[in-house]
């Protein structure tokens, strides 16, 4: 009986190790699908306009752009139209929502600024069943308050309570 338990135990350990090894291959199998996206310079330009920042993390930008493009195959074209419209009309970020809603030629683009800002500040591209979480700690909302608020954690109890030795 003990011998059978040892065989099962070893087998389970080997299965677990095999599963663990297989999961380490997943990111390399999944990420190339997101990596083959068109140039996201329009996304970077619109993102800088909306966030009011001169620079944004390139890797995060690529990931957001890829996620939006995965959710909506027309995203790059819609983004290009938005950038062209903003450039032609010299629209500042503060007036973008109002001006988009007022122009009947681009009403289909009215949702893009909010989607893009949600992606940057909350780390989520899209919504509902199609939502893709792109970042958590690196999103702009957490970066904005990082100097004042404690880092996000799943530890129970007050911040730092896990550091004390239990009795």
TrEMBL record:
Residues 1-35 form the signal peptide. It comes from the Bacteria. PROSITE patterns: TAT (PS51318). Coiled coil: none annotated. InterPro entries: FAD-SLDH_ssu, TAT_signal. Keywords: Signal. The keyword Lyase does not apply. This is Sugar dehydrogenase complex small subunit. It comes from Tatumella punctata. The lineage of its organism: Bacteria, Pseudomonadati, Pseudomonadota, Gammaproteobacteria, Enterobacterales.
């Amino acid at each position: 009986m003990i011998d059978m338990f040892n065989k099962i135990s070893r087998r389970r350990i080997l299965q677990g190790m095999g599963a663990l090894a297989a999961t380490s291959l997943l990111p390399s199998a999944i990420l190339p699908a997101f990596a083959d996206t068109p140039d996201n310079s329009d996304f970077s330009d619109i993102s800088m306009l909306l966030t009011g920042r001169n620079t944004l993390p390139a890797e995060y930008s690529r990931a957001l752009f890829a996620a939006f493009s995965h959710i909506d195959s027309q995203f790059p074209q819609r983004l290009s139209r938005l950038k062209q419209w903003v450039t032609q009309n010299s629209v500042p970020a503060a007036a973008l929502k109002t001006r988009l809603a007022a122009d009947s030629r681009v009403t289909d683009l009215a949702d893009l600024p909010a989607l893009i800002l949600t992606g940057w500040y909350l780390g989520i591209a899209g919504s509902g069943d199609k939502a893709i979480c792109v970042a958590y700690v690196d999103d702009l909302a957490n970066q904005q308050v990082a100097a004042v608020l404690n880092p996000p954690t799943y530890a129970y109890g007050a911040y730092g309570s896990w550091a004390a030795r239990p009795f």
